Amino acid sequence: MVERGSLKIVNVVGGRPNFVKIAPILEAMAGVPVITALLVHTGQHYDHEMSRIFFEDLKIPEPDFFLGVGSGTHAQQTARVMLEFEKVLDQERPDLVVVVGDVNSTLACALVAAKLLVPVAHVEAGLRSFDRTMPEEINRTLTDHLSDYLFTTSEDANENLLREGISADKIHLAGNVMIDTLRKYEPLARARKTAEALGLEPRGFAVLTLHRPSNVDDPKTFALILDSLEEILPRLAIVFPVHPRSRSRISEFGLDARIEGLRNLRLCAPLGYLAFLCLMMESRFVMTDSGGIQEETTALGIPCLTLRENTERPITVHVGTNVIVGTNRDRIVTEALGLLNGAGKQGNMPPLWDGQAAGRIVEVLRHHPPAKGMSR
Ligand code: UD1
Question: What does the pLDDT look like over 185-237, one tens digit per residue?
Fold first, then answer.
């Protein structure tokens, strides 16, 4: 066992989904005296409602380093994170870097750490959509191959990693840290009464989120999704918190007037964690292209229609409440109206999505502490 205070860990966050995952990990680390946990925020997301509000809602400590990289092309964003993160590692010389998820910051920091021979832990390893047109698929695959600890959320992720030749002793099925956060904050979220604040009845609306480049950067696909909404809206209101990427595409494609003309469609700014969790809990169903929301709806037992052709989270389909409907107008409408008519999967909870995943991760790190340049 390592000595007290002797395990220095740099944890990395960059974008909105990362904050939800790091919160329980930092909390679990805070309970272990041998661990000194630092937090780096790359600044990939910087708007109040994409970043700050999550720190407030989830009581995440102030970052020790804010890299302020902001937006840009993939190469610009990744390169800026790498340049700034290298300085942090040079200064801090940690024993381990923890990265979560699959955003550009995840890969950029894993790459810097690996080159400096600092061991890397990847939380949410092994997910694969087998679709390399998704930037996240590239980020997660490369991050996995740079990592020394691969913490997975489900057995299928272990199988993906083994198939890619990653050695079994690096892989730890830990469960889902995002569900740790969900279970912890469910009661507080419920008290938010987001539906009431929007003048809606609980169960009297669906929720929509869209931000994947494959959906919102392509005017034809975006328009097809709007066509399907047009068919559903006469039966049910839809609340659509609009991601900044989608907001700018709507203006760019001249879709403002069409969207404003859709009666029963309620647009709003991106919501904070608690308000959005409450909105999902109160909804009839959720339509989304997000990865995390497929998991959160499964954990809540709320039906989810995924507006993508594939998912890197098949357990939400096989065990949970998720149905992959793609972006075909008729399919979306049929599935949504089916849900209104009482169809819809009951769904079960995937193994180890029990609110204790972060504790298991920290236990592994404590009992198998990293060594410099571990596996290289
Ligand atoms: C990123 C992640 C994606 C994740 C999503 C959650 C990558 C490759 N993608 O996508 O996996 O699901 O975050 O939101 O890392 N913008 C703002 N304010 C912000 C952040 C972004 O206005 O706080 C705008 C900028 O114009 C930017 C655009 O949104 O160009 C896209 O942001 P970016 O971080 O590049 O990717 P996301 O689409 O958010």
Answer: 999 999 999 999 999 999 999 999 999 999 999 999 999 999 999 999 999 99
Task: Give the C-alpha separation, 179 to 202, whole Å.
Answer: 22
Ligand 1 centroid to Cα of residue 72, in Å, is 9
Confidence at residue 374, expressed as pLDDT on a 0 to 100 scale = 72
CA gap 333, 335 in Å, rounded: 6
User: With the C-alpha atoms ordered 166, 351, 277, 256, is the resulting torsion angle positive or negative?
Assistant: positive
User: Please, are residues 291 and 18 in contact by the beta-carbon 8 Å criterion?
Assistant: no
Q: Are strands 265-268 and 237-241 parallel, antiparallel or unpaired?
A: parallel
Ligand 1 pocket mutation, candidates 44, 51, 217, criterion most atoms within 8 A of CB: 44
What backbone phi and psi angles, to 5 degrees, belong to 65?
-135, 135
Does the structure show a pLDDT above 90 at 372? no
Q: Give the three-state DSSP class for 81.
A: helix
What integer is the mean pLDDT of 339-352?
Answer: 92
Report d(CA 127, CA 141) in Å as an integer: 8
- Identify the residue whose C-alpha is closest to ligand 1 atom 3: 103
pLDDT of residue 344: 82
pLDDT digits (tens, 9 = 90+) for 5-14: 589 999 999 9
- Cα Rg of the chain, angstroms: 20
pLDDT of 2 higher than 50: no
- Name the residue of 211, 218, 313 to mutate for ligand 1: max ligand atoms within 8 A of Cβ: 211
- Cα separations in angstroms, 11 against 21, 36, 145, 152, 170: 11, 10, 18, 17, 19
Reply yes or no on whether the pLDDT at 347 is more than 90: yes
Q: ∠ CA(133), CA(102), CA(173), 5° rounding?
A: 120
Q: Is the dihedral of CA 172, 293, 23, 214 positive or negative?
A: positive
